Every structure is written in C-alpha cells, then in structure tokens.
Amino acid sequence: MKLSTLTLLLVATCCAAQTLTGWVSDEQCATSRAKKGIFTGTNPDCAKRCISEGKKNVLVSESKKTVFHVDNPELLKPELGNLIEITGTISGETVHVDSVKQLEVGYAFCARPKKK
What total of structural domains would you count in the chain? Predict the structure, then answer.
C-alpha cells in the first residue's frame, strides 16, 4: 500500500502543470542553433516559411537549454517567432501546452539593438 501511494505521488508530481518561457520556432532552425549552444529566438519570417513548408514548430527554452517538441502545436502557431510563457505538462523533451501568454513579439536577432 505504501509503495503504490508513493508511486502515485511521484507520477502526479512529474506530470503536474509547469510554467515555461521560450521562443516559438521551427524545428529545423532551432535544432541547428541548439547544436551550436544557441537557445534564443529565430527569425520569425524564416520560421513561418519553414512551418508553411511542413516543418514542425517547437519551443526553445533558453533557461533549460532545450528545444521542446510540442505535442499540440496548433496552439503555438499564432505565436510563431514570439517569446511566450506556457503552462503545460513536460515529459522529457516534449511539452503539452495548456495555455499560452505572449511576452514579446519576435524579430530577427540580427536586427535586435545591441545592449550597452
């Protein structure tokens, strides 16, 4: 009885909704950049083109240094290229999104003003 209760608690804890901040990108660009250790947003126009050509959208988390696959990507499609905060369930490198909040409109990082 104690073992099954403990197991249930562990499963409930690992599958509880979490908050995650990241950039919505296309899988091709995000994976390529992640291999170089870059976990920031990608060019929104490029990402939109790649998605229209059939690539999958992903969530790039700079804080977790991970490119998350999204098992319900239709929720993120309107936010392609943007910095968002999601609430969802994370399982390994996959996330199921429950809610989305836009934090910043994305733009090409090469066009970003340099910090002083």
Answer: 1
Query: Which residue's entry shows tokens 């003003």?
Result: 113
52 and 81 Cβ atoms separated by less than 8 Å:
no
Selection from 78, 70, 87 nearest residue 30 by Cα: 70
Tally Cβ neighbours within 10 Å of residue 51.
21
What φ, ψ does residue 39 adopt, rounded to 5°? -120, 55
Examine residue 51 and state whether it is found in any structural domain, yes or no: yes
Question: Model-level pTM?
Answer: 0.79
The per-residue pLDDT for range 5-34, each reduced to its tens digit, is 544 445 554 568 999 999 999 999 999 999
CA 78 to chain centre: 13
- Is residue 13 domain-resident? no
Is 7 inside any structural domain?
Answer: no
